[in-house]
Each structure stands twice: as C-alpha cells, then as structure tokens.
Amino acid sequence: MNSVDHSISPWRQARGPARRMMMIAWFSASASLCVPGIIPFIPGMGGTACAVTPDFGKGFDLLFELGLQELPADRWEYREIEGVGSREILPSSGMDNIRAVVTELENTYTRGWADKTTGEPGKPELLVWDGWQIHDSTQLVHSWGEPRRISLLPADERADAQALAKGLQAIATSKPVRENLLYSSDTIVSFLFRAAQYHRRGYKAEAEAAAQALFAIVPRQDRLLDLAVQTLAGQQYQKALDKFSGTRDWQTLDTDLKRLLQTYSRGWPSRPLVERLQQSVQKRLSSPQIPALVHASSLTPEQQAWWVSVTDGPPPKKQGATEPEPEEYPYGMNYLGEQWLTGVRMAANPEGFNDLEKQKDSLPAWQRAVLDKDWDWITVIAAGLGDDVLVGQRLPSYDPYEPGFEFKADPPELTEEEINDQWNIFFRPQTRGELARAFIETIVPFHEEEGESLPTDLAELRELALNTAKDIHGKTPVEVAKYYLEVGTIDQKSEALSGIIRNGNDADLDLATTIILSQPTRYFQHFSDLVHRRKSAARPAIAQFRKALTAEELDHDPDGNAKTSSGRHREHFEALEIVASGRTIATVIEDYVMGKVPDARLSQELRTVVVSVREKESLPDLGLEAVTRLPKGDGTRKWHLIQNTIEYSRELTEARCRDLLRIIQEDGNAPVIHENGGSRPLSDQIYWLANLFEDYGRTSFVAEVYRFDPDDLWPLWIEHGKASLEGRPLPPLPSAGDVPAPRLQEILQAIPSRITKGWPEYLHTLSLAEKLALQKELRQSGVPPEWCPLALRVTKVTGSSPELEKWAPIQSALGKPLDGAIMASLAEATRTRMLQREGQEIGVTLHLSPLPLLQGWQIEVETYSPTDLDRPNLNLPRTMEWIQKFEGQFGAPSGIQGCAWLRWPQNRREQTLFHWHLDADRRWQNWTSAEYPGLGGPAQEGNVIPETQMNAALDERLRTWNPTELNFWMEASALRPAARETEDSKTKDKRPEEHP
Fold first, then answer.
1. What's the count of helices (H) and strands (E) in the chain, helices before strands?
2. CB 853 within 8 A of CB 774
3. Per-residue pLDDT reduced to its tens digit, 461-479
4. What is the pTM of this model?
C-alpha cells in the first residue's frame, strides 16, 4: 500500500502560536461580509444576493497547514463509496419543508475521495469521505461484517459541493434543526473539512457558501475553529502514538510530541495531558539505563527478566514486514487479571463457551506468560505498584478525542484534579505502576456489599495484595473459589460460584445450591449451570428454586403479578426439567429421527442440552450421521435436522463436506416443503447452506439483490455451493460493472415501451448482472415521472397464511395503482377483521413494500398469536403494554379491547402514524380524538395524525416517495389483547409458603 504523508511542515511548526488567530481573523472577516445568518447567493442554489463575495480561501489553506489531509485531483478521484451510509441530521418527523435538500446533504456521505494509486484497478484501497480521515477500504466493514465496496463509477463532485451548501443553508434557517445539530460536533467539523476539500479542488463558490452557512449555524465562529483545531490535533496525536506502537522509539515520540505542542498552541483541550506525557517521555530518555523496580529484590531473576520484557515492550516491527504483529491485549491488564483469577486459579469459565487457550495465541509473550507460568503472579506484579517508568504499552482506549463540545462558551480551564482524572483514561503509554495496579485491583478482595472499597494508598494496596497471595498460595481451584466466596466482591463471588459448580464435588455443589437459593435472582444463570452439572440430582432443587425466585420477586415488587413472573420463566424451567431428566444431544437427535420430537421443538431442545464447546463442535457430525437414518424422500425433515445442527459449527470441514455430498447423492431430489407451501430439492438447500461458510463478499452482494426474484438467485447459490463442497475455486459474483455501457443504454431505452405492458416478461430476459446494473442506474439517476406507474402498482401477495392471501380486500388491490384510498381500505379491513374472526386469531399485519426494478409493490400477510408477541419486529404488543400502564396510572379509559395502527417508516427513522383503540362498546376510536385526550401521544416514534387527514397524508407520502429506495414500506396492523381477568375472577396472589 502506498504511504500517505501526514507530517506537518516546518512552516507550520514555526508559526503555530499565531496561526489560530490568523485563521479566526480570515474566516471571521469573510463570514461578516454579509449580514449574519443571511447566506450569500450562489447561482442555481437560491439564497440572498450578497454585495461582496466572501473569500474563505486563506482560512481553508490554514486548515491544510494544520494537518488536514491533502487530496490532490491528480491522485484522488471522487467516487461513490457503497455501504458507508448517509448521516442522519433531521429528526424522524416534521421539517418537511427542508427535508429534501437536507437529505441530499446527508447522502453526500455515501460519496467521497478514493486514492487511485492504491489497491487494484477500479478498487482503490484508501478512502476519505468525511473530509479529513484516511480509511483503508479492506478494514472498514458494514455492521453485518462485509468490507465496503468501491463503486466503479465516479460521482458528481460539483453536485455534492452544491448539496453541502444548500443543505447547510436550509439548516441555518431552521432553529430546531440548528440546535439539534450542535449536539453532533463530529458532523459539523466534517462539514467544514468537506467544504475545505471542495474549495481546494476547484469548487470555490460552493465551498464558501457552505462555510458561510456553517458560521450562521454555530453560535460562535471562534469555537467552530477551535473544534477544527481540536479534531486535527487529536488525529495527529493518534498518528504519533500509532507510529510509536510499531517502533517503540522513545526519541521519535518525544520529537513528535514537541512538534504537536508547538503546532497546536490553542484550541486543544488535551494539550495539558500531552505536555505531561512529553515530560514523562523526557524523564525516561534522561536515564541511560531503565531503573530497576523498587521491590525487585523480592523477585527471582527470571521474574525480574519478565518485568524487563514488559518495560521494553514487544520488539519493533521489522522494516518491510508484511505479516501482522501480535496485538497488545485488547482489554488491558485488568481483563488479564480477571482471566488469571477465574480461568487459572479458580478454573472457572465465567464467559460461557469462551476458549481461553485460543485467546492466548494473540497475546504478546509477556502476557501469555501470566496464563502459562505457574508463578505467584500477585506477588510478581504487585512489585510494580507505584513505579512511574513508562513502558511501551498503552491504555486500552480507542477514542483519543475529547467527548462533547460546547459551541456557546469557552471551555473551562482544567483543574489539577480534572487533569489527573483525565490522565487515567487518556490514550497514551502507561507506567509499570499503572499496569500493575490494573491487574492487582481485579484480584484483591474486599467486602463491597458492606461499603468497603479498595485502598487508594499504594503501600496499603500492596500489603493487601501480598496478604491475598499468602491466603491462596497452594490452594486448589475449588479452595480458591471458596476463599473468594467469603471475602470477595460481588463479581468475584459470582465467578467463584461458577468455579465451584464447574469443579466441585457433591458437598461443594450442595453449598452452591444453598447460596443460589438464598439469592435466586442474582444467581439465576448459575442455577442453570448447576442443573446442567448435576442432571437428575438437581430435580428437587428446581422446585425449591422456582419457589424462592417467586418469593424474592414478590418481595421486590409487592404489587407485582406472580403469575406474570411464572409465565416469563416458564420456558426456562421447562428446559431445566429436560436437562434434569437426563436428556443428551444423542437422545434428542434420536427422538427426532423416531418422530418423538416435532420440528418446532428440535431447535429449543438442542439449545437446552448443548452446553460445552466440545458438544457444540460435535453436534454437526451427529446431525449429519442421523440424516442418513431418516426415510428416503423426507427432504423436509432431513433439511430441518441439517439446518438445526450445523448452525453450531464454526467451520465446514472436509469430512462434513463429504457427508453433505453423500446426502445429496443419495437423496438430493427429495422435496423440502417451505412454510408458504413452495418447495425445492434438498440438494438446492444444501448448496445454499454451503454459501454461508464462505467469505467472498456474499453478504454485501445479498444486500444488493434484496427482494430480487429468488429464481434469479438460486442458480448462483447452487453453482457456488457446489464449488464450495467440492473444494473448487468459487466463481466470481455477478456485478453491475460486468455490463458494458451500450448494453445498459439499450435496456434503459426499452423501458418506455413496456410501462403499461410486458415489463415483467422483459425483466425475465435480463441476466443477474444486467439487473444489478439497471438497479444501480435507477438509484443514481432517479426515476422519471412517466415510469412511476410501474413502481406504484400492487403486483404481488405473499405470506404465511395462504387463506389470508386470498382475502378479498387484498385481492381487490392487486393490479391497481397504490394510493391513499387503497391504503386506507387495507387499514380498515385489518382492524375490523378481528371482529369477524374472534377467538381464532388475535392479530393480523400487512406489510406493503416496494419490489426492486420498478416491479411494483408486494403485500405480505402475517397473523400472530400470544406466543408470537415478543417478536422484535412486532410493535403492537408494546402498544398494548403502554395502554395497560396508562390504565393502571390514570384509571381510564377502561375496557380497551384492541388497538390498531397504520404507519410508514423510511430510512429507518421516519414514521408517520395513525392509531386507533377498540373500546368496550366495540367502537374504533382514533387516538387523537377529544374523547380520550390522554391517549393522544402513545409511546411510539413519529406523528399521530387525525383520521380525517389519513387519505391526504398517504397520497402525499406516495407522491414524494423515491421508487429507487427499497428501505420504505407501509404497515397496517391490528391486535386483540389476551383476555384479562376481571376483579371477580382474579385470585389474590399468595406467597408460596402461604399456599396449603
């Protein structure tokens, strides 16, 4: 990868103290050329004409002198950067008068600058999209774990420069949006830096208009410039520390810190901390030899050598080395101390299935030694307490920048106490004493529940640590765990209890049971671990634990409902009963093969009996063996068993590939019946599964083909799955870049003649790459108004209820253009259906979502029952819960029998809502009605609109919708709550011991 020069020029170093004031002067003079808050006129951009054109050029130049990354046009190209995502500025509702222009501003963050001299042709390696930070495209990932991809097509830099100016101008005219934006200082400073980049690259008028708008947005111009200095200084400081991590060169670090202190003389809140660090670095450099530990005499020569390795740090990276160096322990010495105490001395496993041995592989040698060597590590590490010699390790901080920013006032001068507090969490090299203290503080026990705390005096802390070392010296893991049960903190006791359950004998487990029953809520998970350890011997304790848990919950909430608590834990106790019955992985799988375990129960029973890492690793092989014992032709049950056992695997081994190929060979044509009634051969499902184990950009590709016709994708999954199982190289994924420009133009020219007839048939003739190219073009260029009839017609109905798919209101909408009247009729049918089908179902939901490639809208129908009400995408149960809380607090309205809503989210944040409730007289009442004014603001995002405005609001939403945006849907839902007990039918709750 080509290097990028981030150094600061000698001119910058020499003139650091004066430059901030010069920058303020130049920016302020330019900003004041027009009346504050009035934006200069830019042709084609609106705004008010200004008598004098502002000139921010010198101020922008100083930003580059202060370290803003240079992006020369001969090296950096403006490109679309897929997967980065826009920045959200506007609130979820309201501000419709400026929404369109601000959305364009938000979307500029999906484009940026790419270094064409790095990476493969068409796939640059270095990116800048926030205006100031260089990112490596191979390291940046989506939230779902795929690398971001670089578009092959360039973006319109001038259009984005104009969008920046227009968006900021709009924000400057809206006080609520201005005030809200002030809470996002990182976004504001990136606007300034993007404007500087556009200015440097030739779009001067647009950049200066953007800067003028920014100065109208912030309360004080000098504070905006302080923010710029703070940001650039923090970036340069982080680069200095990153360089030091690779070289361990203290002299270079000292030089870099001096340079930073000369350059950023004002506007950098972290400056006092950097000054303190630079003094510490000089102190280390002043001694030709590293001073020995004060308490080194208590250590063996080998242990003293270990401290030398800690002090020196890992060796510098070799020049030209391509292999990554081992990383420092990502969680610091406190986490290392926890692992030593719980994983080594107690032999506990407090993190579930965490494999400690594999963790050690990524540690430097001196940290691995703590987990490998049988030393008295408390005494060894306590020898470093109070030592102020810097070492090459850093605090585990990943954000060296100052949190928050106040635009309206000068930052307060830090007191010595505040500097000390910030020093403890500052991103910097640590001292030997700090490493030691972080480790020791996780080991030393104290009576936390009795109000004790760790001593602040280091001599006292060391004495306490040495006493602890004597107390646990020579003890077994169970004995160490018992020791911490007596004297430890809350967390130490929890980990100790895990160690006893894992390693103790029957008497130890009886002790653990007694402790758990005394505090069942705190030790809820420990009891589950105990049952898994004791199996059938834990059966009597299950009933005792249930009783103790209910009693404790009643004590904490005397007015609570014990029955609600019991229902909440019902499935958990059922699972424990299964474990106590002696069930194992083998018996669950065998019962499934014999037909004793239904499909719906297989996943839950496997989760119940799979406990250890070893069981997780063996489950796929047991499942694949059992598949061969299912009847030939039963593809559905074979697929269900494969899917539910192989999900525990971390890899698709060669043996598992052979087993899957054998299953395909023996019964690959067996049909797998899906919930919607469709089917595919078992072989297709297995090939699709094999794709999930390959890292070849599939996740990012799936996001691109979201809602594409499955028939278009199955050939690809089958082709890739075969290659994966057979160990062959995977063929490349189709891409929009595979389609030549003349062919794309040919496709676009064919659309007008097929707007009213023949469009679906034409789409079937296109390849997957051609569909991807068409989708990209539609998103980039937009959809002409005359093509909108293709996008707004209801063309497809799917769902989990074939009977509801034939529902008359839905069928009447098929083939018609979607409008407010159709949406209103679907909402009405949804909320009244509960009256027609009383007792058979309690809810129905319609999701109306756009299909890709102008194929219209799809209606998905779902029904749900009381067992489904915790699904994350189902919001109506939370609405009912809110109503019940309202009733409990205010006593009215009473007797609500149901609720319904209609909403449309877009871009994950915009929601406009209509809410209704069904009262005791079976009348639907809009929540904004005067009858129940207290229900006008339910606990949901977005607006609640009067029902009389419903059709007009829906029509307006559809009119302004961009058909190329797939993350927009409408939803109509209705819910009847489960029957509630009347006062006459209620049984007063009793404590368990009061029942006969």
1. 42, 17
2. yes
3. 999 999 999 999 999 999 9
4. 0.67
